[in-house]
Hints:
Blueprint: H1 10-26, H2 34-41, H3 45-57, E1 61-63, E2 70-72, H4 74-84, H5 88-104, E3 107-114, E4 117-125, E5 140-142, H6 147-154, H7 158-175, H8 181-194, E6 197-200, E7 207-215, E8 221-230, H9 236-258
Antiparallel strand pairs: 1-2, 3-4, 3-8, 4-5, 6-7, 7-8
Helix pairs in contact: 1-3, 5-9, 6-8
Amino acid sequence: MLESSAPVGGAQAISRAMQVLRGVSRTRRDGAGLLALTRDTGMSKPTVHRILAALAAEGMVEQDPASRRYFLGPECHVLGHVASERFGINRLAAPVVARLAHECGDSAFFSLRRDVFAVCVLREDGDYPLKTHVLLPGDRHPLGIGAGSLAILAALPDDEVESSLQANAALIARRYPHYSVPLIRTLVDEVREQGYSVNRGLVVPGSWGIGVPLRDEQGHVLGALSIAAVESRMDEERQFQLAKLLSREAKRLLTQASSGGTGARPRPPSPKPKS
Length: 275
């Protein structure tokens, strides 16, 4: 049932505005319609419309006059650029992701943990002609959904795994038909046993992925590196090869991050692993 359209203030108003803003961001170039945002957020139509008007006044969203659909506004770009300068690991990850894509030929990703979600920050495509477009920069999934996100979840303590799954249970049931909370628990055990995550086409059939977590010096889980490819390029031997490649680059990235980005200059790309 939709909530009341009565105005709210303080932290709740900010939380609702962020829900709407994230809803707009998920639609990317297609833009978001008012009815879709109402459905996705569970808010009433007047509430969503009022929030969109406030966001538009601040430049956070724009409405296309022809389609009436909403898109992220220029202020989001400005804030994102400023924020990216604060997170050194983001800058350091760019050449790592590019090197991964070059060496494996497929798509490589860098994702960050945001509470009970994983957010894709960087993507780089290799030269293999068949691409998987299941994950794009800015995409946000519950922890456990997809290779990188699953790697992050499995690296957390058991109590955080459970609290994350419970927080996202309704969302997982609603948006991810091939997943369930019991299945994700089983996948977490698998990741911990083998040392890397495998997504066997559970987000989009035919699109597989491999992921490893990124931890800081204190052991806190920061995010993940992952690689996605079509199923035909993900036999067990290649899964193991890609996991080794990801682990190598994760170690290099964290070494540079711990030294303030002053580590050794990245070496030229190595020959690609056997396809």
